[in-house]
Each structure stands twice: as structure tokens, then as C-alpha cells.
What we know:
Blueprint (H helix, E strand, L loop, with lengths): L25 E5 L2 E7 L9 E9 L2 E10 L5 H11 L5 E5 L5 E6 L5 E9 L4 E9 L1 H17 L15
Antiparallel strand pairs: 1-2, 2-3, 3-4, 5-6, 6-7, 7-8
Amino acid sequence: xxxxxxxxxxxxxxxxxxxxxxxxxxxxxxxxxxxxxxxxxxxxxxxxxxxxxxxxxxxxxxxxxxxxxxxxxxxxxxxxxxxxxxxxxxxxxxxxxxxxxxxxxxxxxxxxxxxxxxxxxxxxxxxxxxxxxxxxxxxxxxxxxxxxxxxxxxxxxxxxxxxxxx
Length: 166
């Protein structure tokens, strides 16, 4: 179940509703189509994220959540993200554990399409989707995601998987 974000805390209710990462998830999208990412370390300090997604189309709802995903946070991934944030690259990908990924793509207007795949190997299930961050919210979104990425300590590719965006 998704925790609603009060409208007063949304950066732009239409597309990018992100809130501070201290104890609240980063939420991108609208009520009927969103991706939520929250840092929630596991016992022993292992870096993990809770990721939730909801997509609604033609009255049908698709949803997925995973409370133990890990983002690859190697120096190479952090550098590629810094290049993306500085407009030095148009796309950037972060591998997730369980065969998932986050793919950031910026268009000429400055909008960021965030495509995602949330998977669960043991459940043999996955969901793919996309949300959009409007251009005027892209800077704050990148800053928040940069904070999230810097708090992860997972320096190698999760489960030996790697997808290259080069």
C-alpha cells in the first residue's frame, strides 16, 4: 500500500512529486502512475531501497513493490550520474539487484523520462514502466537522487549483473 504524499509537499503535483529523503520516499509521477524510492537499510547496515510502482491505463492497474532492492553505487555509476546531471550525457542507467534497472533519459526540453524495471527473482515476476519528471523539476529531482545514490554503499554490480549505458 502506498503512503500518500500531502499536496503541500509536492514539487509539482502534475509530474514530479518528490519529498525530502530523510524519512519519506522520493516519489515521481502522479497518483495513477508513479515510482517511489525510499532508502531503508536492512539489519547490519546493508544498503537497501524500498521501491514501489503503480501504472494505470484504460482502467487497469498494475503495481509492484520490493522492499530489499539494492542500487549499484560504484564510483563509475556515480560519475555517469554526475555527467548526466551536468548535461554531459543524455541517458544514464543504474542496475538494481534482482535483475532490475533505472534508466534516465533527458529530452531537448529538459524533461527526464525515468524508465524502470522492478523484479523479484524468487517470485519470477517483474514490472516495467516509465514516469516523467518535468524540466522545471529536473534539477531538484537529480539532487535528491544524487543524495540517495551517495548513501548507498553497494560498490559492485548486484548479483554480478551489469547493464551498460555506454
